[in-house]
């Protein structure tokens, strides 16, 4: 079992509750914490509640998403780039689904942003990513090529590198194409800090293009009701914080 696999298992607050309760039971059984402190057993439930509320979940992910400013399509900043790099997310290999339903939100937003940029200025597009699903037949890079072709990007403007299971290995696979180039890097806003960390290993000039924001720029305190959307936002934030910990301290 790899550290990345274990981290993926532990990103969901729904998993945290039984894990925390189990640890508390073990600590109580071993006498490490007094059995009388029963209020400790409320902590996992409080944590789950906080993660399922809008305001706490937004405040959890906002520091990640606010690392790099939004660069609008009309901006001249990204046009200084020589190449557009789009990090892979996922694709559902199911021809029975409509084209747009085969892409999770992270994929469709990254790819659409890059396609709009290419339409504004026809920079070459670089894609990476290998076969990910155990039942998949094509690499993520090739699926993304299909997306851009469908949106009218000429094939000669698309370069694919069908290597990489994660951000680290994707960036490593694409690194030979970065030489003496300024790269416009398109990925999810919450993922940009980690992606930039890997890009900087190759001494490349990067213009970050964050998309798929799960928080609002300005948010006021609001109680609201628990929801699955807020849980998902919290899970994405926890996933990135664990990824950053692994990137900075365990690699």
Structure description:
The chain is of the alpha/beta class and 251 residues long. 44% of the residues lie in helices and 10% in strands. Strands 3-2-1-4-5 form a 5-stranded parallel β-sheet, with helices on both faces.
Distance between the termini: 16 Å
What percentage of residues falls in helices of 4 or more residues? 40-55%
Structural class given helices, strands, pairing?
alpha/beta
Portion of residues in beta strands equals 5-15%
Query: Using DSSP, what is the number of strands?
Result: 5
Mean pLDDT: 92
Order of helices and strands: HHHHEHEHEHEHEH
Residue stretches low in confidence (pLDDT < 50, at least 5 long) are none
- Largest beta-sheet characterization: 5 strands, parallel
User: What would you call the shape?
Assistant: elongated
Number of helices: 9
Enumerate the strands of the largest sheet in spatial order, edge to edge or round the barrel.
3-2-1-4-5
Report the radius of gyration as a whole number of Å. 21 Å
In short:
This protein is of the alpha/beta class and 251 residues long.
What attributes characterize this protein structure?
elongated, 251 residues, 9 helices, single chain, 44% helix, 10% strand, alpha/beta
What layout of secondary structure does this protein have?
Blueprint: H1 3-9, H2 13-29, H3 43-51, H4 54-65, E1 83-86, H5 105-120, E2 125-128, H6 140-150, E3 158-161, H7 167-174, E4 182-188, H8 192-199, E5 205-211, H9 228-250
């Amino acid at each position: 079992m790899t550290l990345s696999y274990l981290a993926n298992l532990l990103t969901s607050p729904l998993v945290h509750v039984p894990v925390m309760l189990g640890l508390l039971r073990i600590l109580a059984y071993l006498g490490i914490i007094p059995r009388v402190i029963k209020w400790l057993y409320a902590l996992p439930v409080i944590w789950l509640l906080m993660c399922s509320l809008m305001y706490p979940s937004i405040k959890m992910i906002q520091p990640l998403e606010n690392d790099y400013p939004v660069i609008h399509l009309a901006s001249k900043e990204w046009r200084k780039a020589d190449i557009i790099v789009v990090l892979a997310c996922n694709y559902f290999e199911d021809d029975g689904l409509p084209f747009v339903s085969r892409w999770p939100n992270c994929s469709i937003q990254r790819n659409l942003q890059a396609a709009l940029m290419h339409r504004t200025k026809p920079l070459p597009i670089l894609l990476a990513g290998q076969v990910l699903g155990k039942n998949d037949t094509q690499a993520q890079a090739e699926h993304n090529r299909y997306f851009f072709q469908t949106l009218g990007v000429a094939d000669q403007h698309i370069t694919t590198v069908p290597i990489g299971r994660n951000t680290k290995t994707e960036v490593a696979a694409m690194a030979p194409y970065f030489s003496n180039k300024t790269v416009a890097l398109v990925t999810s806003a919450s993922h940009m800090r980690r992606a930039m960390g890997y890009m900087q290993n190759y001494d490349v000039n990067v213009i970050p293009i964050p998309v798929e924001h799960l928080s609002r720029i300005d948010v006021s305190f609001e109680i609201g009701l628990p929801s699955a959307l807020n849980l998902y936002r919290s899970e994405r934030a926890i996933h990135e914080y664990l990824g950053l910990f692994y990137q900075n301290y365990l690699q």
